[in-house]
Amino acid sequence: MAAFLAEKRDFRLGSYKDKCIKRRIAIRIRATSSASPEEYLELLNRDPQEIDLLLKVLTIHVSQFFRNPSTFTKLTTDIFPYLLFKAENEGRAELNIWSVGCSSGEEPYTLAILVLDTFAEELDKTAVSIQATDIDERILEMAQEALYEPERLKDVPPLLKERYFEACNGRFRPVQQVRGMVCFRQCDLLHENSFVESDLILCRNVLIYLERSEQERILRMFADALRPGGILVLGKSETLVGTARSLFRTVCPVERIYKKL
Q1: pTM of the entire structure?
Q2: 163 and 226, same structural domain?
Q3: Which of 107, 113, 232, 244 could form a disulfide with 219 if both were Cys (CB 3.0 to 4.6 A apart)?
Q4: CA distance 168 to 204
Q5: Residue-range definition of the domain harbouring residue 48
Q6: Which of 186, 179, 259, 183 is nearest to 227 (CA)?
Q7: Among residues 204, 208, 241, 244, which one has the least CA distance to residue 224?
Q8: What would the pLDDT profile of 211-223 be if each residue is shown by its tens digit?
Q9: First-to-last CA distance in the chain?
C-alpha cells in the first residue's frame, strides 16, 4: 500500500503513525466491501477515484469557524496585540500569518475576521496577510470557493455572522474583505522546504498523526520560519517534542501557544 500511494500520488505513509493509518485504510476496505487488503489494492489499481477517496480519509479534514473558541479569544486579547505592536516597533509594514493544514478554510477566514473586527485602527499602519496551506488540492478548491453549510458557523458570534458573512442559496460565504486577506496554496509538510517568514503559525491537529521524528523535524522548520519572538499555536492534544522544546518558550500551556526564543 505504501509503495502504491507513493508511486501514484507521491503520498508517503512512512511518516504517519502506523495504527492511525491502518485504522483509516480499514474504513475504506469496509466501505468498498473488499474481502481483504489485497482485494482492496486491486480495486485501487482499477479505480483512480477510489485512490482519491482513500486519500481523503487518510488526510481527514474536520473544521468549522471559531473551532476551540478559547484559542481565538487568547489570540485576540493577547497574541495579536503583541504581534502588531512588535511589527510596528520593528518598522515592518506587514504581519504574516501561516495557517497550516487549513482544510476547507474556516481557520484562516476566522483569523481574518478577528483581525478586521478588532484591529481596524492597527491595520492602517500594519497590513496583515494570511497564508493558508493544506496537502489536499481538492479541499483547497473548496476553501477558495468559500461556501459553507450553516452548521460550520455554529460558533460564530451573531454580530460577526451578520457583519462578515453573506447568505448564498442556503449557505454562507465570508465577505470579499475577509476572503481577500487569505492566500491558499498546496503544501505537503513532509516534503516542503520553502516557507514564508512568519510572525504567527497555527498548526492545530496535524502533528498528532505523524511519527515523533517527523513532529520534531517539522517543529524545527516552524522555528526556522518564525521571526524571533514569533508565535506558534498547536492543537490541544499536541505539544513540543525533542530538541524543538529548546527553541520555544511556553506562553499559554492550556491553549498550546509558544513563543520562538
Answers
A1: 0.83
A2: yes
A3: 244
A4: 29
A5: 2-58
A6: 259
A7: 244
A8: 899 999 999 999 9
A9: 41
